[in-house]
Amino acid sequence: MPTFFSQFLKSPIGRHLTLSIVLFSSLITLMTTAYQLVNDYRSDVTRIDRVFSNIDKANLDVLAASIWVIDERLINTQLNGLIQLPDINYISIKDDSGQAWNSGVQKPTNTLSKTFPLVYKSPTDNINVGSLEVQVDMDAIYQRLYDKAILILLSNGIKTFLVAGFILFLVWYNITKHLDKLSNYCKRIDLDTDVEPLAFDRKQKLDEFTQVADAINSMQAQLRGSFEALKRSKAELQTSLEDRERLLKLERSYKEELARQVKERTQELEQSLTALKRAQQVLVEQEKMAALGGLVSGVAHEINTPIGICLTAASTQLNHIEELIVLIHSEHATLDEINAILDEYQESCELIVRNITKASSLIQKFKTIAIDRSHEEHQCINLKSQLQEILESTLIMYPKLTAQTQLEVAPALNIQTNVSLLNQIVSNILSNAFTHAFQDRQNNQIQITAKLEQGYVNISIENNGIPIPPEVAEHMFEPFFTTNRSKGGTGLGLSAAFNAATLLKGTMNYQADSALGGAKFNIRIPLTQCNAPKLTTNHDFAI
């Protein structure tokens, strides 16, 4: 036993293992104790709530009747009965004239009180005759929880130390003393002396220590053979030093050349990886838009079913007017009754019709995203005239808001593109500005610029309204994301614009550093110039 304690005190493994066992057991003990105490406290509080509930259900009416007739004997009897309930230390009854009946001792702290109104229910009316105050002593509950916590912690602490001591003894007996012998044996190994095989002081059995002893004995034999071979090769190594130096120089030159080639290959791989990431991003966005079309189409289909049910309900509601006919032809019908029923049916029908109209409008907006317009016929248009027409139409849609507009587009720029998709992109961005950026503001400005660059048309739309917060800009192109849902926003405007730009084989992005101070959107679409623009009347300003 002294050997056990001395090795334990000197062993970092033993100390660490003891500390780990004690800390982990203490943590589990504290967690289980806290959980059990919380459950016990909740049970006591629940029991007190049940007592209050039973008083409310069983005693209030009787007390109210006793106070109404001022039956002192019955009041005192009920007070004595209530004070006998568990954990109740004080009860007070007061009538509306100021007279009071008390039982028990009232405490100023660590109590839970509840006051019940006493209402006498006469055949014609309910009369408030006084109040009942019930006070519960929480000290007894806290004391029970404290005693239980001390008992649990002491019992678990004793158990933890006993288990830890037994485990440490087993570790010392089966592992630590053998490791100590192995360490001392390895320190005494000398290749110049005779071989002394490693053997542990214990019964012969096949386990890990036996395998370690066999491996060390085998390793020692191999080391001795290798040591003899090393001595023999020492002379040969002396004669090969010059060859070694030459080989080292050759190796250094080879490493330098290899490093240069690796650097070149790394640069090529980085360039290829960058291009691959761009292509991957484009493919992901295309997949998102394709999946979005199926999603929104499914949503529109699912919403149509409850709309049909709602319309059927509205028709049925209108058919109930026949009930009014019966009421009108009855002898006891009054004008107020008829008007009340008519108002009720009219409001109900109008509510159903308004919701059907709103849902149908929402379905159309969903379908705006779902429809694949990439195969519509492209038309030759004058870009400036088309953008001016979209801008004027948007201003008409928001007559209560004013904005100064500036259009910087070459008058002779004619392009061939899908007009519906282009209208959808520009009108949704403009509508988003009027809805979010220009609310409660004056001196609003909108600037639209179009430039040609390497076979593409770059259209920039910016305003001086409220900037878009970074947390909103991160998600604003996602379907159904909106910050204005309480006012009817659906979160489909910018998502539909992004989808339309993708269908045009172009891109759309948001730029935070606008020259006007507000939001700036950049649309990049392929350039196909033409000479004979046609007037278009296809206005698709879906939001």
Largest sheet: 5 strands, mixed
β-strand amount: 5-15%
Number of helices: 13
Mean pLDDT: 77
- Give the terminus-to-terminus CA distance: 85 Å
Low-confidence stretches: 368-374, 535-543
Descriptive overview:
With 543 residues, the protein is α+β, with helices and mostly antiparallel strands. The protein is built from 13 helices and 11 strands. The protein has helices at 2-10, 12-58, 60-69, 72-83, 139-188, 208-239, 241-319, 321-329, 335-370, 383-397, 419-437, 470-473, 493-503, and strands at 88-95, 100-104, 111-121, 126-137, 379-382, 404-408, 414-417, 445-453, 456-463, 507-511, 520-526. It has a 5-stranded mixed beta sheet. Strands 2-1-4-3 form a 4-stranded antiparallel beta sheet. It has a two-stranded antiparallel sheet with strand order 5-7. Helix 8 runs antiparallel to helix 9 (335-370). Mean pLDDT is 77; it is low at 368-374 and 535-543.
List keywords for this structure.
single chain; 543 residues; alpha+beta; five-stranded mixed sheet; four-stranded antiparallel sheet; 13 helices; 11 strands; 61% helix; disordered C terminus
Short description:
By secondary structure, this protein is an alpha+beta fold. Helix content is 61%, strand content 14%.
